[in-house]
Amino acid sequence: MKFDIDSLRTLQTLADTGSVQATADHLHLSKSAVSWKLKRLQERTGCTLVRREGRGLRLTDDGHELLTYGRQIIGAHDAAVRRFTPIDTGGTVRVGATEGASATPLLDTVAPWFRRHSADVDLKISLEQPATLDEWLADGRIDLAVTMALEPDITPEDVVLDRDDLVWAHSPGVDFVAAPRLPLITWGPRCFFGTLASRLLTDADIDHTVSYELPTIAAVRTALTNGAGIALLNRGVIAATDLTTTGPPALPEAPGVAYVLRRRHDGERNALHDLVADQIQTSFRPHYNGATHR
Q1: Is 165-255 in CATH node 3.30.930.10?
Q2: 184 and 251 in contact (C-beta within 8 Å)?
Q3: Which end of the chain, N or C, is less surrounded by CB atoms within 10 Å?
Q4: Is the Cβ–Cβ distance between 217 and 100 less than 8 Å?
């Protein structure tokens, strides 16, 4: 038995849209072609993969199980196509990123890939705070941003790269909750985490002060490990350290956060921007490790 990519992609699109017509429109196929591809999948598996539900189609349990494998196959196939497709365009692409977001995917994967495959692509990467990155997108200073957003602030245009929880992190054995004023560690006055932490604590009537404004993730980790204060971090970073967390009821519950890819606000798009955006999305899937993105 062999599965072809086009049929698996049809099943995936049907699962996402719930409609044969929407699947046909998305894949630029006729409705009869969509139905034929689904029928061929069912014949090959010997299973009922979809069933009619109201005016649409829904996947059966077998359909969902096949789709689990199908998404992996499609993802690997598309990543390979992107990896080995020749770059036939040139120009400059300016990417802004948070410090953590740049570490593995952008600097270790995306930038070297473009340098290996095209001397005509000038990929410029600048690191900044999320608030500054949004300003750079708005005034056209950068073309793409790898940044972070709270769940309610995700826009329809954002491409979500990953999600994580936010937690109050500190050195174990230090009772900061009992302190007269809670000492915060941040990345400076425009720090995404620091601004959110201050707002949450103020709303909870918890007295606090910013004790440290540090320039890098490494510096923040060192200060936390040494018991200098408490910081709002994404949960992924806690697993790799001896840091511990404190949550409700002692400290307010923190919201979830998403790491997103955003484009410049004037809507200008070209093939090179699309290619870089595609490579960023691909690089985050295997490499994202939950590191702190500020």
Answers
A1: no
A2: no
A3: N
A4: yes
- 75 by Cβ neighbours in 10 Å (0-12 / 13-18 / 19+) ranks as middle
Name the pTM for this structure.
Answer: 0.70
Rounded to the nearest 5°, which phi and psi values hold at 98? Answer: -75, 160
How many whole angstroms separate alpha carbon 143 and alpha carbon 96?
Answer: 8
Cross-strand partners of 169: 231, 245
Write down the CATH number for the domain with range 91-163+258-287: 3.40.190.10
Sequence-separated (6 or more) residues with CB below 8 Å from residue 147: 96, 97, 98, 101, 130, 133, 134, 259, 260, 262, 293
Tokens coding 276: 């870089």
- Residue 112 and residue 19: Cα distance in Å, rounded? 40
| Contacts of 198 by beta carbon, 8 Å cutoff, 6+ apart | 184, 208, 210
Asked if domains 5-84 and 91-163+258-287 share a fold, the reply is no
Let me know: does 14 contact 50? Beta carbons within 8 Å: yes
List, for residues 211-264, the tens digit of each pLDDT value.
999 988 889 989 999 999 999 998 877 777 899 999 999 999 999 898 899 998
Residue 178: CB partners within 8 Å, gap ≥ 6? none
The beta strand positions in the chain, using DSSP E, are: 50-53, 56-59, 91-97, 121-127, 144-150, 159-170, 182-186, 208-213, 231-234, 244-245, 256-263
CB 232 within 8 Å of CB 196: yes
Is 69 exposed, middle or buried, given 0-12, 13-18 or 19+ CB atoms closer than 10 A? exposed
